[in-house]
Amino acid sequence: MCRLFTLALLAAICSISLAAKVLVLQDDPLIRSTHSRYFRELHSQGHTVTIKSVTDSNLKLRDWDDWIYDKLVIFAPSAPDMGGDIDDDAVLEFIESGHDVVIAASSQLSDPMRKLCESIGVDMEGKGTAVVDHVDHVLGTHGHTTVLADGFSNSDAILGGIGSRAPVLYQGVAGSMSPESTLGTVILSARDTAFSTVPGKASLETPSLAGGHAALVVGIQARNGARVVVSGSLDLFSNKFFSAKPVTSQGERLESTGNAKFCAEVTKWAFHERGVLRVSNVHHNKAGLTEQPDWYRITDDLEFALDIHEFSGGSWKPYRADDVQVEFIMLDPYQRITMKHNNEGHYFTSFKVPDTYGVYKFVVSYHRAGYTALDVVKRVSVRPFRHNEFERFLTAAYPYYASVLSTMAAFFIFSLVFLYHK
Question: Which residue ranges does UniProt annotate as crossing the membrane (predicted)?
Answer without folding.
Answer: 398-420
